[in-house]
From TrEMBL:
Active site annotation, chain numbering: 109 (proton acceptor)
Protein function: Catalyzes the reversible conversion of ribose-5-phosphate to ribulose 5-phosphate.
Amino-acid positions noted as binding substrate in the UniProt annotation, renumbered to this chain: 31-34, 87-90, 100-103, 127
Protein name (database record): Ribose-5-phosphate isomerase A
Gene expressing this chain: rpiA
Length: 232
C-alpha cells in the first residue's frame, strides 16, 4: 500500500468519525496522522455548517491545529465529562487491545481516554492485526534514572530502545519525559505486561490500551468499516 492510498483511507475514516460529533458535545481529540484528517473535517464543519462543540486535546499539536479552525479547546480539568474521544492507534487486535504512543502522546491520550464516556479509534486497515506487538510498544519514563529502567527492561528481554529524534537527541513528550520503545514482536499476555510496566519505578505510563475502545473505524479501499467491541 503506498502512502497516497493509506492517506485516502485515513481521510475516509477521519471524515466518518467526524459525523459522531454533534452540537454541544465535549469531544476528546487525539493525536496523529489519521486524527489530523478528523480535525480538518471538524474544522470544515465548524466553518461551513456552524457546528459548535468543545474540544479537549491529547497533545499541543492537535490543540494548535484545532484552534486554527476556530474550534474551542479547553483544559481537561475544566470539563466534568467527555462525551466521546476520537483517536488513532498504532495497532489494534480482534480483542480490541491496542498499542498507542507512536506519536509520543500516550500519557495525555490515556488520561483523556479514561475520562471519556465513549472511545472511538480511527485507523487504516494496516493497523488491524491478529496479535499486537509488531509495532514497538512505547513506554513513557521520567528522565531521571531512565538508563536504569532501560537496563531492567533489557534484563527482562523486552528489547528496549530509547527513542531519539533526527538529531540523535532524546524525544521529549508534552510532559518532558522520555519514551522507551519495546521491540517485542508479539505480546501474548498484554494484561500481565501492562501490570509489570506500570509497577516499574520510573515508568509514568505505557502504550497498552486494553479493552478500552468501544468502536474502531477502519479505513478500507472500499470505504470505512466499523468494528464494535461487544465487551464494553
Amino acid at each position: 500500500m503506498d502512502k497516497a492510498q493509506q492517506d485516502a483511507m485515513k481521510k475516509a475514516a477521519g471524515i466518518e468519525a467526524a459525523k459522531l460529533i454533534q452540537d454541544g458535545m465535549i469531544a476528546g481529540l487525539g493525536t496523529g496522522s489519521t486524527v489530523k484528517f478528523l480535525v480538518d473535517e471538524l474544522g470544515r464543519r465548524v466553518q461551513e455548517e456552524g457546528l459548535q462543540f468543545t474540544g479537549v486535546t491529547t497533545s499541543r499539536r492537535t490543540q494548535e491545529q484545532a484552534e486554527s479552525f476556530g474550534i474551542k479547546i479547553v483544559d481537561i480539568d475544566d470539563v466534568d465529562h467527555i462525551d466521546v474521544t476520537i483517536d488513532g492507534a498504532d495497532e489494534v487486535d480482534k480483542n480490541f487491545n491496542g498499542i498507542k504512543g507512536g506519536g509520543a502522546a500516550l500519557l495525555w491520550e490515556k488520561i483523556v481516554a479514561t475520562n471519556s464516556n465513549k472511545i472511538v479509534w480511527i485507523v487504516d486497515e494496516s493497523k488491524v492485526v491478529d496479535t499486537i506487538g509488531k509495532f514497538p510498544l512505547p513506554v513513557e519514563v521520567i528522565p531521571f534514572g531512565a538508563g536504569q529502567v532501560v537496563k531492567k527492561f533489557e534484563a527482562k528481554g523486552y528489547k528496549p530502545v530509547l527513542r531519539l529524534d533526527a538529531d540523535g537527541k532524546e524525544v521529549r513528550t508534552d510532559e518532558n519525559n522520555f519514551v522507551v520503545d519495546l521491540h517485542l514482536e508479539r505480546i501474548e499476555r498484554p494484561a500481565e505486561l501492562a501490570e509489570d510496566l506500570i509497577n516499574t519505578v520510573g515508568v509514568v505510563e505505557h502504550g497498552l490500551f486494553l479493552n478500552m475502545v468501544d468502536t474502531v473505524i477502519v479505513g478500507n479501499p472500499d470505504g470505512p468499516r466499523i468494528l464494535t467491541n461487544s465487551n464494553r
